[in-house]
What does this fold into?
Amino acid sequence: MQSEPQAFDRVLSSMCTDPHPAARDAAERFLATNPGDPGTYPTVATLEDDAIEQLGEIAGLDDPAGYITSGGTEANIQAVRIARERAGTRTPNVVMPESGHFSFRKAADLLGVELRVVPTDDDHRTALEAVRASVDDDTAAVIGVAGTTEYGRVDPIPELGEIARSVDALLHVDAAWGGFVLPFTDYDWQFAHAPVDTMTIDPHKMGQAAVPSGGLLVRSPDLLDALAVDTPYLESTAQATLTGTRSGAGVASAVAAMDELWPDGYRRQYVRSQNNADWLADALEKRGYEVADPTLPLVAADVPRSTFDALRAKGWRISRTGTGELRIVCMPHVTREMLASFVGDLDRLEVR
Ligand code: 0PR
It folds into this structure.
């Protein structure tokens, strides 16, 4: 079996990273526990309360409610489900920017909700006019992304909140990736900044927890009621999660990572990652590529397909945006040395 550090040493495309040692250790200790059955596994159930408490602090939510999901996909599906249940229309729709993650397509499919995809502006952020033109009385939720998958952009969350309120829809913020770096920026994205109702914020991305560890936060506990089903033969009476048996490892590792890193460790990591992204953007620009300004630690650059393929052939794990730009995510395992070596390979290709 390959060891993890080796597995990560050329990975520039992932939104997951090497878990913090404390998170790895906690995951191992709780491997065989199931927070879906709190009557039998009370320790991990208590840890989950701690996790939600911590996530709430990070996301600016007093009195937080929610649960640790299998990932951003589950959290997004559940958020759409909450909105659909609350909307009380037979023909619900949700409005999201084209920069929204594909998990919302799964949500719309599963839940029978119409997905209205609106364009983004020149800076890859939701075009507010298009959102305004798309909402109506059947709109169950407006979706904003705080740290988009392709360009790391943050949508204008307070403005989206106003639009959502104008049609009595919920505002869902997808901070799956951005949630653990945004507290150290000036963006308005938190519950405290805008009328946010539900949020996805994943410990297993920038939070440095082990997979699977996603987060769903809701402004008030009653929003979770829309998800609850009766659990006749368990000690607890209702379950709001999508999965039944789920990973205590994810829950315990999220708590361990946040205990270790919130806030100073995450702040240091944000600064390191952002510096790396700025350095890489600069290096690529100097070589004549068009680069999307890395407003968060994610760099997208217009590199020809042939160059991209040659870099992949050299073993670099890189990916492309929908429009074909090279995309590099400056996760905690991505060091300056790695990036310098990557740029070195790029230079050797260009000489030929
Ligand atoms: N929301 C946003 C903004 C995301 O970027 C992602 C995942 C999700 C939701 C869904 O989260 P889960 O994958 O936890 O369900 N974005 C990455 C992507 O789809 C996920 C990823 C992670 C891809 C690791 C590759 C990889 O190696 O590109």
Q: What stands out?
A: The mean pLDDT is 96.
